[in-house]
Design brief:
This protein is mainly α. The chain contains 7 helices and 2 strands. The protein has a two-stranded antiparallel ribbon. It is globular.
Length: 196
């Protein structure tokens, strides 16, 4: 719940989640994004209640989570291969990097297909793997949300603080030359995305 709550808060801060102005609010007593945590709790319970009604449906949900996790690793790898905008770090595989990345993409494609296939035959309503239907619904909803709302507001992650290069390790509040923190905060206040 902690990592999911942080993820919802971060996506809400960048206005990538429906009703983000609610999920980004910080509780004054606990100094935590309680609404973001509670919406995660609600959806976790709601999704798991599916298992009480249909094993096939909850198996589809679990298959989609596995596919989504694999895609979350594979999409940056694929972008690196297609667009080539990548600076190798201190540990790099050199010429083997392309082939390892290609294998990762092919394996993810293979695993995604396996997770979509039915697990028993003959395929009937109660033995169907509904992962493809859930995955399609998620992709369609995400595309609609992006083109209707997200594209208008999302300009990239908002920078809230910058590290000072001095030896003390202090964090700048953004009042320096760039002032990005103040600009981001003021923009959020104008759009209702931050509460003080």
């Amino acid at each position: 719940m902690q990592s999911l709550g942080r993820t919802v808060f971060a996506f809400s801060r960048d206005r990538l989640v429906p009703f983000s102005n609610i999920w980004v609010q910080i509780n004054p007593v606990t100094q935590t994004p309680l609404y973001a945590v509670w919406i995660c709790v609600f959806w976790a319970i709601a999704i798991n209640l599916i298992g009480l009604g249909s094993y096939a449906a909850i198996a589809g949900v679990f298959a989609v989570t596995a596919i989504a996790l694999d895609w979350s690793y594979c999409i940056p790898i694929l972008c690196k291969m297609v667009f080539g905008q990548f600076e190798p770090g201190p540990w790099h595989m050199g010429k083997l990097s392309f082939w390892v990345n290609a294998y990762a993409v092919v394996w993810t494609l293979f695993a995604s297909i396996i997770f979509i296939l039915p697990t028993v035959r003959p395929v009937e309503g109660d033995t169907m793997n509904y992962a493809i239907a859930f995955l399609g619904a998620i992709v369609i909803f995400s595309a609609f949300f992006w083109y209707i709302v997200g594209k208008k507001y999302y300009t990239g992650p908002l920078i809230e603080a910058q590290m000072d290069e001095n030896a003390s390790g202090d964090v700048k509040d953004g009042s320096g030359p760039s002032g990005e923190f103040q600009r981001a905060t003021e923009e959020k206040k104008k759009t209702g995305g931050i509460t003080t």
